[in-house]
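User: Sequence in, structure out. Go.
Assistant: Echoing your sequence, followed by the structure tokens.
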Amino acid sequence: MKIMSSKILLTILYDNIAAENDLQAGWGFSCLVEGAGETILFDTGARGEVLLSNMKKLGISPRDIDIVVLSHFHGDHTGGIDALLEENHEVSVYFPSSFSRGFLERILASGAGVVPVSSCLKIMPGVSVTTETGDMTREIAMVIETDRGLIVMTGCAHPGVKSILEKVECISPDKLLMLIGGLHLEARSRFEIELLASTLAKKGLSHPAPCHCSGDLSKEVFRNQFPGYIETGVGRKIRLKDI
């Protein structure tokens, strides 16, 4: 089942820069997904008070969230989970099965549901998470299947963007419409980033939205190469019907 792209709204709640002056920036990433059936929070940033403050200023209630997906164990992606669960523990939390037993028990103690992810898994019709990728840092990505192509959301892409996209193929062979999230390209050369951009263009990518650890150089390269480039930052709302 493919989701109508016109229904999808993405709101960046945590990022290194703020798109609106009254919102707080911070090292980390979090993005809200609405219009896919249930409301999904992908990652929770580093600090719960920052996450909740940004949500409040954007008129988003923690109680509206149905599902939380955590991409990997680093604190700049999981740090806000406890504060969020204090506001709403009636959620299901999806995370890589390599997360510690202590983390799992902490989430269970809050009253939330836990879903360790060890293989490609459908969350709901049209929305899935990939199997874990990487060695030192195990990471999952989220995939939204729309009528215009795939939206792939990454936390940091520590294992590499290409490795993550290989895992996406177990979910759908459709073209890549949007890649949003941290791409872990800060230390990469212009040549490496341009090569990656060319590879992504061949996969059909039209709307890159690099955030968090992607780096200024990657944003420059992607902005120049893709007419559909999307500016990011805390507070940025991305309505697929408008792109």
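User: And one key feature?
Assistant: The chain is about 25% helix and 25% strand.
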